[in-house]
Amino acid sequence: MKISDSILNLLFPEGIVCIGCNAEMSVPSEYGLCGECSVYKNTRFCRICGRGLVGEGEYCNDCQKDKRYFDAARAPLIYEGLSRTLIHRFKIGNLKYLAKYLARFMYDAYSKEDWQPDLMTFVPIGARNLKSRGFNQSQLLALELSKLNGIKVKDLLKKVTDKEDFSKQGRKEREAGIKDSVEASEKLHKEDILLIDDVLTTGVTAEECAKVLKKAGANKVFVLTFATSECKPVLY
Ligand SMILES: [Zn+2]
Ligand SMILES: [Zn+2]
Protein backbone atom coordinates (compact mmCIF):
# COMPACT_ATOMS: atom_id res chain seq x y z
CA MET A 1 0.00 0.00 0.00
CA LYS A 2 1.34 3.41 -0.96
CA ILE A 3 1.48 6.20 1.59
CA SER A 4 -1.19 8.21 -0.22
CA ASP A 5 -3.51 5.18 -0.18
CA SER A 6 -3.10 4.68 3.54
CA ILE A 7 -3.80 8.36 4.21
CA LEU A 8 -6.95 8.12 2.11
CA ASN A 9 -7.94 5.06 4.06
CA LEU A 10 -7.57 6.99 7.29
CA LEU A 11 -9.73 9.79 5.93
CA PHE A 12 -12.30 7.50 4.36
CA PRO A 13 -12.14 4.14 6.12
CA GLU A 14 -13.54 1.55 3.76
CA GLY A 15 -17.00 0.25 4.53
CA ILE A 16 -17.46 2.46 7.60
CA VAL A 17 -17.99 5.85 6.03
CA CYS A 18 -20.63 6.50 3.34
CA ILE A 19 -19.03 7.23 -0.05
CA GLY A 20 -21.79 9.78 -0.72
CA CYS A 21 -21.96 11.93 2.42
CA ASN A 22 -19.09 10.68 4.61
CA ALA A 23 -21.53 9.81 7.39
CA GLU A 24 -20.43 7.00 9.64
CA MET A 25 -22.26 3.74 9.07
CA SER A 26 -22.84 1.18 11.78
CA VAL A 27 -22.93 -1.65 9.23
CA PRO A 28 -20.80 -1.67 6.07
CA SER A 29 -22.89 -1.30 2.93
CA GLU A 30 -22.31 -3.36 -0.21
CA TYR A 31 -22.66 -0.27 -2.40
CA GLY A 32 -20.83 2.02 0.01
CA LEU A 33 -23.88 4.23 0.55
CA CYS A 34 -25.80 5.01 3.74
CA GLY A 35 -29.60 4.88 3.93
CA GLU A 36 -29.86 8.64 3.45
CA CYS A 37 -27.95 8.81 0.17
CA SER A 38 -29.72 7.87 -3.02
CA VAL A 39 -28.73 7.61 -6.65
CA TYR A 40 -30.87 8.13 -9.73
CA LYS A 41 -31.41 4.64 -11.16
CA ASN A 42 -31.66 4.08 -14.89
CA THR A 43 -34.84 2.03 -15.09
CA ARG A 44 -36.38 2.95 -18.46
CA PHE A 45 -33.79 3.07 -21.19
CA CYS A 46 -33.21 2.80 -24.94
CA ARG A 47 -32.97 -0.88 -25.93
CA ILE A 48 -29.77 -0.19 -27.87
CA CYS A 49 -27.66 2.55 -26.28
CA GLY A 50 -29.08 2.16 -22.77
CA ARG A 51 -29.54 5.88 -22.20
CA GLY A 52 -32.43 6.86 -19.97
CA LEU A 53 -35.65 7.54 -21.82
CA VAL A 54 -38.10 10.23 -20.85
CA GLY A 55 -41.45 9.71 -22.51
CA GLU A 56 -42.74 6.98 -24.80
CA GLY A 57 -40.94 4.53 -27.07
CA GLU A 58 -38.32 1.80 -26.95
CA TYR A 59 -35.47 3.64 -28.66
CA CYS A 60 -33.88 7.07 -28.37
CA ASN A 61 -33.82 9.46 -31.32
CA ASP A 62 -30.18 8.73 -32.19
CA CYS A 63 -30.67 4.95 -32.27
CA GLN A 64 -33.79 5.34 -34.40
CA LYS A 65 -31.84 7.35 -36.95
CA ASP A 66 -28.51 5.52 -37.18
CA LYS A 67 -27.18 2.05 -36.56
CA ARG A 68 -24.71 1.85 -33.68
CA TYR A 69 -21.40 0.04 -33.92
CA PHE A 70 -21.86 -1.58 -30.53
CA ASP A 71 -24.54 -4.24 -30.08
CA ALA A 72 -25.90 -2.84 -26.82
CA ALA A 73 -24.91 -0.49 -24.04
CA ARG A 74 -26.16 -0.43 -20.45
CA ALA A 75 -25.63 1.63 -17.32
CA PRO A 76 -27.17 1.20 -13.87
CA LEU A 77 -27.44 4.92 -13.10
CA ILE A 78 -28.32 8.26 -14.66
CA TYR A 79 -25.41 10.71 -14.71
CA GLU A 80 -26.99 13.23 -12.37
CA GLY A 81 -26.71 14.24 -8.72
CA LEU A 82 -24.75 11.82 -6.57
CA SER A 83 -23.55 9.57 -9.42
CA ARG A 84 -21.99 12.63 -11.06
CA THR A 85 -20.33 13.61 -7.76
CA LEU A 86 -18.96 10.09 -7.29
CA ILE A 87 -17.47 10.02 -10.79
CA HIS A 88 -15.91 13.41 -10.14
CA ARG A 89 -14.37 12.28 -6.84
CA PHE A 90 -13.17 9.07 -8.46
CA LYS A 91 -11.52 10.73 -11.48
CA ILE A 92 -10.53 14.19 -10.36
CA GLY A 93 -10.36 13.61 -6.61
CA ASN A 94 -8.19 10.56 -7.19
CA LEU A 95 -10.24 8.35 -4.89
CA LYS A 96 -9.33 5.09 -6.57
CA TYR A 97 -10.95 2.94 -3.88
CA LEU A 98 -14.38 4.07 -5.17
CA ALA A 99 -13.93 1.79 -8.21
CA LYS A 100 -14.96 -1.19 -6.11
CA TYR A 101 -18.32 0.37 -5.23
CA LEU A 102 -18.99 1.81 -8.68
CA ALA A 103 -18.31 -1.63 -10.17
CA ARG A 104 -20.84 -3.14 -7.76
CA PHE A 105 -23.56 -1.01 -9.36
CA MET A 106 -22.30 -1.94 -12.82
CA TYR A 107 -22.46 -5.62 -11.96
CA ASP A 108 -26.21 -5.26 -11.27
CA ALA A 109 -26.84 -3.90 -14.79
CA TYR A 110 -24.52 -6.55 -16.27
CA SER A 111 -26.35 -9.39 -14.48
CA LYS A 112 -29.68 -8.38 -15.99
CA GLU A 113 -28.41 -8.92 -19.55
CA ASP A 114 -27.92 -12.18 -21.35
CA TRP A 115 -24.36 -11.32 -22.37
CA GLN A 116 -21.65 -13.96 -22.55
CA PRO A 117 -18.48 -11.93 -23.17
CA ASP A 118 -15.22 -13.77 -23.75
CA LEU A 119 -13.15 -10.78 -22.68
CA MET A 120 -13.46 -7.37 -21.09
CA THR A 121 -11.60 -4.30 -22.19
CA PHE A 122 -11.81 -0.58 -21.42
CA VAL A 123 -11.80 2.79 -23.16
CA PRO A 124 -8.18 3.97 -23.32
CA ILE A 125 -7.06 7.44 -22.23
CA GLY A 126 -4.31 9.53 -23.76
CA ALA A 127 -0.78 9.66 -22.39
CA ARG A 128 -1.26 13.22 -21.13
CA ASN A 129 -4.37 12.32 -19.12
CA LEU A 130 -2.74 9.17 -17.83
CA LYS A 131 0.24 11.16 -16.64
CA SER A 132 -1.78 13.83 -14.84
CA ARG A 133 -4.33 11.43 -13.31
CA GLY A 134 -1.97 8.53 -12.74
CA PHE A 135 -4.56 5.90 -13.65
CA ASN A 136 -7.18 5.03 -16.24
CA GLN A 137 -10.54 5.13 -14.46
CA SER A 138 -12.19 2.73 -16.95
CA GLN A 139 -9.41 0.18 -16.48
CA LEU A 140 -9.90 0.26 -12.69
CA LEU A 141 -13.64 -0.26 -13.12
CA ALA A 142 -13.00 -3.19 -15.47
CA LEU A 143 -10.59 -4.79 -13.01
CA GLU A 144 -13.06 -4.47 -10.14
CA LEU A 145 -15.92 -5.80 -12.27
CA SER A 146 -13.73 -8.72 -13.25
CA LYS A 147 -13.63 -9.79 -9.60
CA LEU A 148 -17.43 -10.00 -9.69
CA ASN A 149 -18.15 -11.55 -13.11
CA GLY A 150 -14.95 -13.58 -13.55
CA ILE A 151 -14.30 -12.24 -17.07
CA LYS A 152 -10.67 -11.56 -17.91
CA VAL A 153 -9.62 -7.95 -18.65
CA LYS A 154 -7.36 -7.35 -21.63
CA ASP A 155 -5.78 -4.13 -22.81
CA LEU A 156 -7.16 -4.28 -26.38
CA LEU A 157 -7.26 -0.60 -27.33
CA LYS A 158 -4.77 2.21 -27.39
CA LYS A 159 -5.16 5.92 -27.87
CA VAL A 160 -3.05 7.07 -30.80
CA THR A 161 -3.78 10.77 -30.75
CA ASP A 162 -3.88 12.83 -27.61
CA LYS A 163 -6.38 15.51 -28.45
CA GLU A 164 -8.08 17.84 -26.03
CA ASP A 165 -11.00 16.84 -23.84
CA PHE A 166 -14.21 16.65 -25.86
CA SER A 167 -16.50 15.87 -22.97
CA LYS A 168 -18.23 19.25 -23.01
CA GLN A 169 -18.73 19.39 -26.77
CA GLY A 170 -21.64 18.35 -28.92
CA ARG A 171 -22.06 15.10 -30.83
CA LYS A 172 -20.65 16.42 -34.13
CA GLU A 173 -17.49 17.89 -32.53
CA ARG A 174 -16.96 14.77 -30.48
CA GLU A 175 -17.33 12.57 -33.56
CA ALA A 176 -14.71 14.57 -35.40
CA GLY A 177 -12.41 14.63 -32.38
CA ILE A 178 -12.55 10.94 -31.56
CA LYS A 179 -12.41 9.65 -35.13
CA ASP A 180 -9.26 7.60 -35.77
CA SER A 181 -7.96 8.35 -32.27
CA VAL A 182 -8.14 4.71 -31.12
CA GLU A 183 -6.41 1.61 -32.46
CA ALA A 184 -6.59 -2.09 -31.61
CA SER A 185 -3.47 -3.48 -29.97
CA GLU A 186 -4.01 -7.03 -31.22
CA LYS A 187 -6.00 -9.15 -33.67
CA LEU A 188 -9.20 -10.71 -32.37
CA HIS A 189 -10.82 -14.00 -33.32
CA LYS A 190 -14.60 -13.51 -33.20
CA GLU A 191 -14.68 -12.95 -29.43
CA ASP A 192 -17.61 -11.17 -27.80
CA ILE A 193 -16.16 -8.18 -25.98
CA LEU A 194 -17.48 -6.22 -23.02
CA LEU A 195 -16.21 -2.64 -23.24
CA ILE A 196 -16.02 -0.67 -19.99
CA ASP A 197 -16.16 3.10 -19.54
CA ASP A 198 -17.15 5.38 -16.66
CA VAL A 199 -19.91 7.39 -18.37
CA LEU A 200 -21.78 7.20 -21.66
CA THR A 201 -23.24 10.48 -22.89
CA THR A 202 -23.59 10.67 -26.68
CA GLY A 203 -22.15 7.18 -27.15
CA VAL A 204 -19.62 8.45 -29.70
CA THR A 205 -16.53 7.23 -27.78
CA ALA A 206 -18.04 3.78 -27.20
CA GLU A 207 -18.97 3.58 -30.89
CA GLU A 208 -15.48 4.43 -32.08
CA CYS A 209 -14.00 1.78 -29.77
CA ALA A 210 -16.60 -0.78 -30.89
CA LYS A 211 -15.87 -0.01 -34.53
CA VAL A 212 -12.14 -0.55 -33.98
CA LEU A 213 -12.71 -3.79 -32.02
CA LYS A 214 -14.95 -5.17 -34.77
CA LYS A 215 -12.44 -4.23 -37.45
CA ALA A 216 -9.82 -6.12 -35.43
CA GLY A 217 -12.03 -9.22 -35.50
CA ALA A 218 -14.43 -8.97 -32.54
CA ASN A 219 -17.86 -10.55 -32.95
CA LYS A 220 -20.18 -8.62 -30.63
CA VAL A 221 -19.29 -5.57 -28.56
CA PHE A 222 -21.35 -4.77 -25.46
CA VAL A 223 -20.76 -1.59 -23.50
CA LEU A 224 -21.17 -1.13 -19.76
CA THR A 225 -20.72 2.16 -17.94
CA PHE A 226 -21.41 3.33 -14.39
CA ALA A 227 -23.71 6.13 -15.50
CA THR A 228 -25.43 7.36 -18.64
CA SER A 229 -27.27 10.44 -19.82
CA GLU A 230 -30.99 10.81 -20.15
CA CYS A 231 -32.56 11.50 -23.53
CA LYS A 232 -35.28 14.05 -23.49
CA PRO A 233 -37.76 13.55 -26.32
CA VAL A 234 -37.42 15.94 -29.23
CA LEU A 235 -40.37 18.30 -29.41
CA TYR A 236 -41.71 18.99 -32.89
ZN1 LIG B 1 -24.61 8.89 2.80
ZN1 LIG C 1 -30.39 4.81 -28.02
Question: Care to describe what's here?
Answer:
With 236 residues, the chain is α/β, with parallel strands linked by helices. It folds into two domains: 1-38, no CATH class; 40-231, Rossmann fold. Helices cover 33% and strands 15% of the residues. Strands 2, 3, 4, 7 and 8 form a five-stranded parallel beta sheet that branches. The chain has a two-stranded parallel sheet with strand order 1-9. It has a two-stranded antiparallel sheet with strand order 5-6. Strand 7, helix 8 (204-215) and strand 8 form a beta-alpha-beta unit. Helix 4 crosses helix 6 (137-149). The protein is globular. The protein starts with a helix and ends in a 5-residue tail after the last strand. The structure holds zinc ion (2 copies). One zinc ion is lined by residues 18, 20-21, 23, 33-34, 36-37.
List the keywords.
single chain; 236 residues; alpha/beta; Rossmann fold; 2 domains; five-stranded parallel beta sheet; two-stranded parallel sheet; 9 strands; 33% helix; globular; binds zinc ion
Radius of gyration: 18 Å
- The outline comes out as globular
The number of distinct β-strands equals 9
Largest sheet: 5 strands, parallel
Low-confidence stretches: none
What layout of secondary structure does this protein have?
Blueprint: H1 3-11, E1 52-53, H2 61-65, E2 72-74, E3 77-78, H3 82-91, H4 98-111, E4 119-122, H5 127-133, H6 137-149, E5 157-159, H7 171-178, E6 182-184, E7 193-200, H8 204-215, E8 221-228, E9 230-231
Parallel strand pairs: 1-9, 2-8, 3-8, 4-7, 7-8
Antiparallel strand pairs: 5-6
Bound molecules: zinc ion (2 copies).
One zinc ion binds at residues 18, 20-21, 23, 33-34, 36-37.
